[in-house]
Specification:
The complex is a heterodimer of chains A (357) and B (443).
Chain A lengths: L1 H32 L3 H12 L2 H18 L1 H10 L1 H20 L6 H31 L6 E2 L2 E2 L27 H25 L5 H29 L5 H5 L5 H13 L8 H23 L2 E3 L9 E2 L7 H28 L12
Antiparallel strand pairs in A: 1-2, 3-4
Helix pairs in contact in A: 1-2, 1-3, 1-6, 1-7, 1-11, 3-4, 5-6, 6-7, 7-8, 7-11, 10-11
Chain B lengths: L1 H42 L2 H34 L2 H35 L1 H4 L1 H30 L4 E3 L5 E3 L4 H4 L3 H30 L3 H37 L1 H8 L11 E8 L4 E8 L2 H7 L21 H30 L7 H9 L2 H18 L2 E3 L3 E2 L10 H32 L7
Antiparallel strand pairs in B: 1-2, 3-4, 5-6
Helix pairs in contact in B: 1-2, 1-5, 1-7, 1-14, 2-3, 2-14, 3-5, 5-7, 7-8, 7-12, 7-13, 8-9, 8-11, 9-13, 11-13
Classes of the chains: A mainly alpha (357), B mainly alpha (443).
The structure holds CIS-heme D hydroxychlorin gamma-spirolactone and protoporphyrin IX containing FE (2 copies).
Chain lengths: 357, 443
């Protein structure tokens, strides 16, 4: 049962990053490349129509995590207190940027909300990557100092950073050079994904240019990937064990690589939806590989006093998990139906359409 | 420790108060939108469709605010109430996760279609998407109230040796005797809010002599919906809730009603009075004997336990706030019925649109249903103290062990600043929308 919910939550999170990822990415591209009002408008529209139904996946993942792994939820949310509050602020500014930009016609008003949308998309992508970095690196569970714990073994509290910015100290902070690298990977990945989305959904004048941008970003991504792999092993030396013990898990890195290699041919790809699919593979493969390398751990402990948090020592009761399975299946089925209806009715390029607004 | 609890509570109270301003309009307004859309389907008069689409614009702004202030609520369970989440997540996690799955997805998927899809879908489907948005928002209320009902009156659980609550009976969460009355009362209260908002917009248009055709439509609809829901909110649902509190949270009930001492015959109902916590009595009291016993138990001389019957640490910790909240809600409820009944009378006599003082009153009444809703929640939440899970888990045992009071104070100040900005934007945008009015735009 734990395993089932772990996988289900993993899938919901991956869907969240594929879906909301494109509007984060659209925000990043918009920030750096959209210069003309027409492009700005159509890009914000391509994100603005969907951000809410995309963000629900995050809310749902949160709810499911709370239900299935309450101890983990409690530990992580209180331990990463400050970064989470920052994330909340960014979510707010992104959303209102998208929703409010069109409310007045003044240039200044639009500029403010454009920046609000763009900058918070960029920072959110960075923070989500940093979050993943923290999970991989592990934290000082129980806030142990000289062998003495300040809290119960499943609680901790991280400062935003520690003076050394090193992932290997006894008290790592949220931001260190390792988590920053993972954060950058997230930014680059989502920027590629967002660019693909813009190409797919709009006729903006920068579409052709964006293909070149994707190509360059992809080179950066390849370099970062190799580099991060090396530091990853340095920070968490056991991270390949799962793959050698269960070789079938290697499909996840392969999925990632397919996306990465495929995107080098971006200029030759005829169908825009194929390019979008490739960047989706990047995201899915990246998340799944990271989770698979930790499994069944979901938050490693960097001290020897307290054990890692795993899906087994943080889960709710067996009964709770199995009733939730029953309603969960119904819920998932409904969501798939809504999703298909929505994408059907709103398929095609945004700017070709008149929605009767 | 003490100030940790204080700031955590203050932050939760502040953020939920702000959040709840928005959903109460969302839920009620979606009903009115569906109503107008339905009228349009039936008789094909363009006016109704325009009215629905106009209200939808206000709805959309309000909805955005509801979403962005709702996400911090979900986070806060983990960030500030970690111990509570750890211990009860196996139970309230169920209802919260169901809310995400069954209501937020429904609402957000169809909202975009409702706003942008009229031409794409045709009128029948457009009505249907509106209806699904309504369904989603009411389902959201249902699940969140199921969560709250469990905290007020825990059922279907088992407590393990390590203090964890585990679910023992899933269906008990939804057959909780606290849930149905709370849900009906709360939803009707949100219909009150939106009827008052719509009536107030109507009164504004008539007084300004602008968009008056819509002004009349909004005023009429608002008054009719407003009267019906105001009556239903008081009776039977308000009364039903009061009986529940008396039965399951007798200490809270005594504090709400301001009964310091148990009286041997029946209990009086207090209309006016100020709690004096030093002498443990009500100052300058006006009360009617025996009514409370009758209202609660239909027996004139039934004894109702006063606060003297409970240990100090079993009673709510802020009795005056609880008492005032309750009396403000009930007092406002009574006023709402009065004003709307008067308005309906003049509507029937076909004079309403010309009686200026009444129009002004209706226009300026708009903050009060919000106040009634918020004080209603304060009654429920302050009455639950000193427990998080009534009778089982104390509020002091639920906070995050690792988050210091300084951090919470810091983030609380941040929320205050952020929400002031949001509130301002909200008012500007809604004001602008109302000012533009429901006349169809030309393309
Ligand atoms: C427009 C808003 C509004 C109005 C006019 C009223 N209420 Fe109310 N009341 C609420 C809005 C509300 C609420 C915000 O919706 C609450 C909070 C929790 C809930 O389920 O509904 C609530 C809760 C609530 C409770 C539960 C308190 C607890 O759980 O401890 C009681 C006993 C009443 N109400 C009683 C009444 C009575 C007798 C009213 C007579 C006029 C009344 N309410 C009018
Ligand atoms: C239905 C969902 C709700 C849940 C699950 C919920 C839960 C909580 C929790 C966990 C706390 C903090 C602990 C405590 O102080 O007891 C709290 C406090 C509080 N809530 Fe709620 N709440 C809900 C709805 C509301 C609403 C809609 C309002 C008002 C608008 C409200 C008003 C308050 C207030 C004023 C407090 C502070 C009370 C105090 O600390 O003395 N609540 N609630
Ligand atoms: C502590 C309690 C609460 C939590 C954790 C919470 C959580 C949330 C979240 C996460 C959202 C955003 C959903 C999205 O992304 O679409 C939201 C919106 C919403 N909430 Fe709350 N909420 C709480 C209290 C309440 C209460 C008391 C009600 C009503 C009875 C309510 C009704 C709604 C509705 C109808 C929405 C949709 C958006 C809107 O209407 O503005 N919530 N809430």
């Amino acid at each position: 049962m734990e395993l089932f919910w772990y996988i289900a939550i993993g899938i919901v999170l991956a869907v969240f990053f594929v879906l909301d990822g494109y509007d984060f990415g659209a925000g990043i591209i918009h920030l750096f490349f959209a210069k003309e009002e027409k492009d700005k408008e159509v890009i914000t529209k391509s994100a603005g129509l969907f951000w809410d139904s995309n963000e629900v996946w995050l809310v749902a993942a949160g709810g499911m995590l709370f239900m299935a792994f309450p101890t983990f939820y409690a530990s992580v949310f209180s331990g990463f207190y400050l970064p989470l509050i920052i994330v909340l602020w960014l979510i707010v500014f992104r959303a209102i940027g998208l929703e409010f930009r069109g409310q007045f016609k003044y240039q200044m008003w639009k500029d403010i909300w454009d920046k609000s949308f763009g900058v918070s998309s960029l920072l959110l992508a960075l923070f989500f990557g940093i979050a993943l970095g923290n999970i991989v690196r592990g934290v000082n569970l129980g806030s142990v100092e000289n062998g003495v714990s300040a809290h119960e073994g499943h609680y901790f509290f991280l400062p935003l950073w520690d003076g050394s910015f090193s992932p290997l100290t006894e008290h790592p902070g949220v931001i260190d050079w390792f988590t920053i690298i993972i954060g950058l990977i997230a930014v680059v990945t989502l920027a590629i994904h967002g660019a693909n989305w813009i190409i797919l959904k709009t006729n903006s004048s920068i579409n052709n240019k964006l293909k070149g941008v994707i190509f360059k970003l992809n080179i950066a991504l390849a370099v970062l990937t190799v580099f991060s792999l090396i530091v990853w092993l340095y920070v968490n030396p056991n991270s390949l064990d799962n793959f050698s013990q269960k070789p079938y898990l290697l499909v996840f890195p392969v999925i990632y690589l397919t996306g990465l290699i495929g995107l080098f041919f971006i200029k030759k790809i005829k169908k825009d939806s194929h390019a979008f699919a490739l960047s989706s593979l990047l995201i899915i493969g990246g998340i799944a590989s990271s989770l698979a390398s930790l499994f069944p751990v979901i938050l490693p402990s960097v001290n020897d006093v307290h054990e890692h948090l795993t899906i087994y020592n943080t889960s709710a009761s067996e009964y709770g998990l199995s009733v939730a399975l029953t309603w969960g299946i119904i819920g998932f089925a409904l969501i798939v139906v809504y999703f298909i209806i929505q994408k059907r009715l709103m398929s095609g390029k945004i700017d070709n359409m008149d929605y009767g607004h | 420790m003490e100030d940790m609890i204080f700031y955590d509570r203050l932050q939760f109270a502040f953020t939920i108060t702000f959040h709840y301003i928005f959903p109460q309009l969302t839920m009620g307004l979606s009903l009115l939108i569906v109503f107008f859309k339905w009228k349009y389907l039936r008789n094909n008069i363009e006016k109704y469709n325009n009215a629905a689409k106009f209200l939808m614009k206000i709805f959309a702004i309000n909805f955005t605010m509801g979403v962005v202030t709702g996400i911090p609520m979900e986070f806060q369970f983990g960030t500030n109430w970690a111990k509570f989440s750890e211990l009860t997540g196996g139970i309230i996690g169920q209802t919260l996760a169901m809310e995400g799955m069954f209501s937020f997805f429904l609402e957000s998927s169809f909202l975009a279609l409702f706003i942008f899809g009229e031409k794409l879908m045709g009128q029948k489907l457009h009505f249907l998407t509106g209806f699904l948005v309504f369904l989603g928002s009411w389902a959201s209320g249902w699940f969140i109230l199921a969560t709250n009902a469990w905290m007020q009156h825990p059922v279907g659980y088992e407590i393990l040796d390590n203090g964890k609550f585990v679910l023992e009976n899933f269906s008990a969460l939804f057959s909780n005797p606290w849930l149905l009355p709370a849900f009906l009362h709360n939803q009707l209260a949100s219909v009150v809010t939106s009827s008052f908002v719509v009536a107030s917009i109507g009164a504004f248009y008539i007084l300004r002599n602008k968009h008056s055709e819509y002004g009349k439509l909004f005023l009429k609809t608002g008054v009719i919906f407003g009267l019906v829901s105001s009556v239903l909110v008081a009776f039977p649902t308000g009364d039903w809730n009061a009986k529940n509190v008396a039965k399951h949270q007798p200490g809270a009930f005594a504090a709400m009603e301001g009964i310091f001492e148990t009286e041997h015959a029946g209990a009086e109902i207090v209309l006016i009075g100020q709690p004096n916590m030093v002498d443990k009595k009500l100052d300058n009291k006006i009360a009617v004997p025996n009514i409370l016993s009758f209202l609660t138990y239909q027996e004139w001389d039934k004894q109702i336990p006063g606060m003297d019957q409970f240990e100090e640490d079993e009673l709510p910790d802020n009795i005056p706030a609880l008492y005032y909240s309750y009396h403000i809600m009930v007092g406002l409820g009574t006023i709402f019925i009065g004003v709307m009944a008067l308005a309906l009378f003049f509507l029937w006599r076909k004079k309403l649109y010309t009686i200026k003082p009444l129009l002004w009153t209706i226009m300026f009444l708009v903050p009060f249903p919000y106040i009634a809703n918020l004080t209603g929640w304060y009654t429920a939440e302050l009455g639950r103290q000193p427990y998080l899970v009534y009778g089982l888990l104390r509020t002091s045992d639920g906070i995050s062990p690792t988050v210091s009071s300084g951090n919470t104070l810091f983030t609380l100040l941040g929320f205050v600043a952020l929400y002031m900005l949001l509130g301002l934007l909200f008012l500007v945008l809604v004001g602008k929308t109302i000012n533009q009015g429901p006349t169809p735009q030309k393309h």
